[in-house]
Design goal:
binds 2-phosphoglycolic acid, 13 helices, TIM Barrel, globular, single chain
Length: 255
């Protein structure tokens, strides 16, 4: 079976104000040959305050880079001080929204139920969720990684129509590999991404499993991307630290 079109996403986390974001984006666009987009989708997920500037830049310079967000609320509007509506993101031409990144789960206490509500809200507004899952080091050492990931994916997809599951992106990110310089081996990453796909099959059926794109994330660098991308169940990468530098991120995209 032909592999799905890979998606390589840069998660800037809380880095780059809107002026830095413009510079980084211009450099990234310059570094990426037009041919690159024929074989890979590329998205950038800046902080909320950068979105409007990057939307305009993408539009004016006719860039092929896809605009993404890192998070959103599940309600369209209301008394939720500090939160951002998925409807507002849609208005900014955001196409991909990360839901349930481990930093949101750990630092901001997002539960599986909240993540599921976000996934449904993102889909409702015709954007694509990047649903994140992954185990801690303790869970891995206790042989609980498979069960953790199965549970997170199953909960995240609750109530999602099978046709929608097929166009979803799921990022498997072992927490011990995020920002640590420690990557899962390509074989381990493949094994876990296969578990993600098998879980999708249980929830949404074979077509959903064949269509869903599974990213690996956790210290992805120019030096390890090729090996990861050769794995049959890895369809891309969610890149944090290495996406901040346009040269490094371009090297990853053009692996
Ligand atoms: P990292 O972050 O590439 O810096 O490990 C990945 C992520 O948090 O998505």
């Amino acid at each position: 079976m032909a592999k799905r079109t890979p998606l390589i996403s840069g998660n800037w986390k809380m880095h780059h104000d809107h002026l830095e974001a413009i510079r980084v984006m211009q450099k990234l666009n310059f570094r990426l040959p037009l041919d690159a987009y024929k074989t890979v989708d590329v998205s950038v997920h800046p902080p909320f305050t950068d979105l409007r500037a990057l939307q305009t830049l993408i539009d004016v310079d006719e860039m092929s880079i896809i605009l993404g967000a890192q998070h959103c609320h599940w309600e369209d509007k209301g008394a939720f001080t500090g939160e951002v509506s998925p409807a507002f993101l849609k208005k900014l031409n955001v196409s991909l929204v990360i839901a349930g990144h481990s930093e949101r789960r750990e630092l901001f206490h997002e539960t599986d139920e909240m993540v599921n509500k976000k996934v449904l809200a993102i889909l409702k507004h015709e954007m694509t969720p990047i649903l994140c899952c992954g185990e801690t080091l303790d869970e891995r050492e206790a042989n609980e990684a498979d069960a953790k990931v199965q549970a997170q994916v199953t909960a995240g997809l609750n109530g999602v129509a099978p046709g929608d599951v097929a166009r979803l992106v799921i990022a498997y990110e072992p927490i011990w590999a995020i920002g640590t310089g420690r990557t899962a081996t390509a074989a381990d990453a493949q094994a876990m991404c296969k578990i993600v796909r098998d879980t999708v099959k249980n929830v949404g059926g074979s077509d959903a499993a064949a269509g869903v794109r599974v990213q690996y994330g956790g210290s992805v660098k120019p030096a390890n991307i090729k090996e990861l991308m050769e794995m049959p169940d890895i369809d891309g990468a969610l890149v944090g630290g290495a996406s901040l530098d346009p040269d490094e991120f371009a090297a990853i995209v053009t692996y």
